[in-house]
Design a protein that fits this description.
Blueprint lengths: L6 H19 L4 H19 L2 H13 L14
Helix pairs in contact: 2-3
Length: 77
């Protein structure tokens, strides 16, 4: 998903998706997982970005709603 210069991003991505699917496989509602992740993301953006950049980020997120891809759920064994 990420190029060779972003190995750490691939690790973070993989860890998040693994953790999320572990929760889902335990019976946690995927929408609850998404809501918590979105809340944390917004908090991190608000905490680390200057206000104008935070607003640009939120606008970018809203404007990219149609380009979001679905993920394939792993099979439960």
């Amino acid at each position: 998903m990420f190029d060779d210069n972003n190995d750490d991003m691939q690790v973070i991505y993989d860890d998040y998706i693994k953790f999320t699917f572990e929760l889902i496989n335990k019976g946690i509602d995927p929408l609850k997982c998404a809501g918590i992740m979105m809340t944390h993301a917004m908090m991190l953006y608000k905490t680390t970005l200057p206000e104008d950049e935070y607003h640009k980020m939120i606008e970018l997120i809203a404007n990219s709603k149609d380009s979001v891809k679905e993920i394939k759920r792993p099979q439960v064994h």
